[in-house]
Amino acid sequence: MKSFRRELWFELDNRRGLVNITSQVQQALGESGIKEGLVLVNAMHITSSVFINDDESGLHNDFEVWLEKLAPEKPYSQYRHNGSENNADAHLKRTIMGREVVVAVTEGKLDFGPWEQIFYGEFDGKRRKRVLIKIIGE
Q: Which residues lie closer than 8 Å to 22 by C-beta, 6 or more apart?
């Protein structure tokens, strides 16, 4: 069995944001030479996420509104975690949206359902963070 590893780095200008990373994952898959197997893509920071969904701006806005209702950023005093860093809401948002995705590789391609795309979700931006791509297979 072969394996391939790649890191993606992000530093968003805003506190929160979504980045479609599907093409970067597909590029890594192509470079790996793996035709059958699995791709793991995971956020390597506790206040960011990797998830699969549709690349539609209305839905992205819905995520922002929904997450802010579930775990509002302010007032900072509502969270016991906040202190030197006021990012408790980002930890909660990451838990909701998930840490990683696993996608099947079939005939050298990501084996997606209709409209599926891979996203990096940032919930406490303005600093450098990484995403791990790990591909295993033949």
A: 55, 110, 117, 118
